[in-house]
Automatic annotation (TrEMBL):
The keyword Protein biosynthesis does not apply. Residues 1-51 are annotated as: Disordered. It is found in: Nucleus; Cytoplasm; Mitochondrion. Probably binds two magnesium or manganese ions per subunit. GO terms for biological process: DNA repair; heart contraction; heart looping; negative regulation of apoptotic process; positive regulation of gene expression. Its EC number is 3.1.11.2. It comes from Danio rerio. Belongs to the DNA repair enzymes AP/ExoA family. It catalyses: Exonucleolytic cleavage in the 3'- to 5'-direction to yield nucleoside 5'-phosphates. This is exodeoxyribonuclease III. The gene is apex1. Initiates repair of AP sites in DNA by catalyzing hydrolytic incision of the phosphodiester backbone immediately adjacent to the damage, generating a single-strand break with 5'-deoxyribose phosphate and 3'-hydroxyl ends. The record marks N205 as: Transition state stabilizer.
């Protein structure tokens, strides 16, 4: 259940493009509202069909792996102890990865993808306790794959895809590219789903519905909440996939995973839900819980965790 904090001084329209924001001042003489905070409820470890969760996956946009490691992100990971850890926006070439993470004995199977053209840009990672049957990088299209945005791991019962979806950017300068990405990525996922069901996780860079961000009215023309990006996500769901958090918590407001660093947005819970676990319909009977770990610090995003019976 959400709970109220003590004080809020002004509203913020957060933008998802690299932590920028536009501030909106309260009208003179108006009392500031106390922010409503989201409280992660107790874990549900049993699926609707009565099976116990036996797979735990965590996803986190770390906004720079090296800085995140210095902010003790790995301490949180060890405490959370997922079977698989997926990271986005690592911003780190493989040769520059911190030894703290490359040497983690808890995850003997580690996979990295980075931007070919721009070092310190984009990038994803997947760390597994159990070795996948197969691992691939990208979605098979050069225009997308050079930015190091997707890793796919095949396991006996499902595919796991972690993605850092391209941001439409300030001024929507990459919106046309994003629309192309959405079509191609959906086709890639549908191709996998025809072989075996999948879990998609990561920063999908879209707040799907008005409930998924604090200030929908002020952000309709901003990256992450344009009609085009929202429609792209709707079309993904219509292709046979499910937003696991909304499946379990259809009316839960104030549940966000990203807050700009500016304007004290996180303490005021002026945020966006940009990070998702999306499931093939065949995996839905085994869905136990989809968590937003909003108290975990170290990035402008918080981690999310999926509990699944497979």
């Amino acid at each position: 259940m959400p709970k109220r904090a003590k004080k809020n001084e002004e509203g913020v329209d957060g933008e998802s493009d690299n932590g920028t924001a536009a501030a909106k001042k309260e009208k003179k003489g108006k009392e500031p509202e106390a922010p409503i905070l989201y409280e992660d409820p107790p874990e549900k470890l049993t699926s609707k069909d009565g099976r116990a969760a036996n797979m735990k996956i965590t996803s986190w946009n770390v906004d720079g792996l090296r800085a995140w490691v210095k902010k003790n992100g790995l301490d949180w990971v060890r405490k959370e102890d997922p079977d698989i850890l997926c990271l986005q926006e690592t911003k780190c070439a493989e040769k520059a990865l911190p030894a703290d993470i490359t040497g983690m004995p808890e995850y003997p199977h580690k996979y990295w993808a980075g931007s070919e053209d721009k070092e310190g840009y984009s990038g994803v990672a997947m760390l597994c306790k159990t070795e996948p049957l197969n691992v691939t990088y990208g979605i098979g299209k050069e225009e997308h794959d050079k930015e190091g945005r997707v890793i796919t791991a095949e396991f006996p019962d499902f595919f796991l895809v972690t993605a850092y979806v391209p941001n439409a950017s300030r001024g929507l300068v990459r919106l046309d590219y994003r629309k192309t990405w959405d079509v191609d990525f959906r086709a890639y996922l549908c191709g996998l789903d025809a072989r075996k069901p999948l879990v998609l996780c990561g920063d999908l860079n879209v707040a799907h519905q008005e409930i998924d961000l604090k200030n929908p009215k002020g952000n309709r023309k901003n990256a992450g909440f344009t009609p085009e990006e929202r429609e792209g996500f709707t079309q993904l769901l219509e292709a046979g996939f499910t937003d696991s958090f909304r499946e379990l918590y259809p009316d839960q407001a104030y549940a966000y995973t990203f807050w700009t660093y500016m304007m004290n947005a996180r303490s005021k819970n002026v945020g966006w839900r940009l990070d998702y676990f999306v499931l093939s319909s065949a995996l839905l009977p085994g869905l136990c819980d989809s968590k937003i770990r909003n108290t975990a610090m170290g990035s402008d995003h918080c981690p999310i965790t999926l509990f699944l019976a497979v």
